[in-house]
Amino acid sequence: MVGSGPPAVPGTDGPPTGHPGTRRSKIGVLALQGAFREHIRMLTGLGADAGEVRTPGELDGLDGLVIPGGESTTIGLLMEKGGLLTPLREFVEARPVFGTCAGLIMLARSTVDGEQPLLQVMDVTVRRNAFGRQTRSFEAPVDLALIPGVQETFPGIFIRAPWVERTGPDVEVIARCDGRIVGVRQDRVIGVAFHPELGDDTRLHAYFLGLVTAGAVRPPVRR
Amino acid sequence: MRVEGTLRVKTGLAEMLKGGVIMDVTSVGQARIAEEAGACAVMALERVPADIRKEGGVARMADPEKIVEIQEAVSIPVMAKARIGHFVEAQILEALEVDYIDESEVLTPADEAHHINKWKFKVPFVCGATGLGEALRRINEGAAMIRTKGEAGTGNVVEAVRHMRAIMDQIHALSAMDEDELFRAAKDYQAPYELVAWVAGHGTLPVVNFSAGGIATPADAALMMQLGADGVFVGSGIFKSGDPAARARAIVEATTHFRDPGVLARVSRGLGEAMPGLEIGAMRPEELIQHRGW
User: Fold this and answer.
1) Is B81 a catalytic residue?
2) What chain A residue is nearest to B71 in terms of C-alpha separation?
């Protein structure tokens, strides 16, 4: 008998539930490396039309993008080689983006520990592997502040996780754990240091989809 | 309320490695080449499997000095191998804070009946398997990640294919069984009924499944991904080839774009000599290391 049983597969049950009369949000999940399938499962469970993105062309027609956890050096190199850095920066200008763990690192302006390709679209500085190596990976409640004045708790899963060391004036802190900044928002871009996609609490993904439907600003159509 | 070493963070790190390439390295220089090529993790070891095969003798856990040097040189996860059943090597690797332990048949087994009780550790383990029963026995012992055994150090992908095909076929067969049949399947697979029933219900292993053992080219890596691997380990295939840096980069790209023949054709060009391969059929049974472990 397995001690804690096999890990649960999150966010899989139930048919997609788009509102009648509205188009389902089309969300891309960057699938260069890492835990992209878990995000797709969770977003699909929330009614979105979610698919994998590996090439610049696959960004066309998307309403929002998720950058998943994985190894940020690997993801950065593959972005560079695949000619994705510029298209992704342009995408972030106009559409909501949600990064988790390595995704947060990719969104940051800089890291404390050196050079690697980054999108540099959020005015934050991130420390990689800030909580330590794998034996220090942990689960702990996160203090979440998505709505001004409302404090929530969210189950945090931290795996060789980064934290945010510096935030610019336009950046709002949305999550803290052990006194560290582990979640930030800048306009339509959100980044968290932990892994909501590995659990079964869908609030952060639902919040992101809310940004997609409410705040999406369409760029002017060029003809 | 902070809990370290939970099953979720152990299996979670493997989830983060998916779609990536884990490379065997024996020095700081090789570890840097691997990281710069886009490896999602490195496996620190004393000798690559091809050399273990050639030189013979007892193969053990790597020198902790070397592991620490490699940990200091790269920012990606560092894994290391312990001998099957050698729980003290595992204790030492945990004290060194390696990110994953591979309880590996590539090293000389230390116990011919028992694998390590992996539930006792905070550090996660990956274990090799040749089929579903073996994979589930390892998961039952606490493995948080599985890889095919293949036939390490041969540069011949045929055994990795055999093992991946076997695991996938067996999962498909389980999914079609009714409850009565599942009790029998659990007996046949020598695995706990609860795990067998879980796999039947979900149509997948409960942990990430990589491919290892004989991958030498970008095409080999993409083949294993198309067969259902979540990612690949490359052992001797990179640093026993003519141009390790170029080959490492190519295998990383091939693993990401494994369904895109155009990318595979582009990255496969001009890589120089692949590692010399061995014909499995021409090897004596005692030369095969996939039969180590039980």
Assistant:
1) yes
2) A133
Q: Within an 8 Å CB–CB cutoff, is residue B192 touching chain A?
A: yes
Q: Which of residues 207-246 of B touch A (CB under 8 A)?
A: 207
pLDDT in tens, A155-192: 999 999 999 999 999 999 999 999 999 999 999 999 99
Q: Is A101 a catalytic residue?
A: yes
Q: Quick check: B181 contacting A, CB < 8 Å?
A: no
| Amino acid (one-letter) located at B136 | L
CA angle B178–B184–B186, rounded 5-degree value: 100
- The H-or-E segment that residue B54 falls in is helix B49-55
The residue of chain B with its CA nearest to that of A156 is: B2
Tell if the CB–CB gap between A7 and B11 is shorter than 8 Å.
yes
Does residue A214 surpass a pLDDT of 90? no
Q: pTM of the full predicted structure?
A: 0.93
- What is the ipTM for the molecules in this complex? 0.94
> Would residue B258 be called left, alpha or beta, if left means φ above 0 and alpha means ψ between -120 and 50 degrees?
alpha
- Let me know if B174 is exposed, middle or buried by CB neighbors in 10 A (0-12, 13-18, 19+): buried
CATH number of the structural domain A26-214: 3.40.50.880
Domain range annotation of chain A? 26-214
A70-128 confidence digits (pLDDT tens): 999 999 999 999 999 999 999 998 999 999 999 999 999 999 987 889 999 999 999 99
Please answer yes or no on whether A7 and B4 come within 8 Å at the CB atom: no
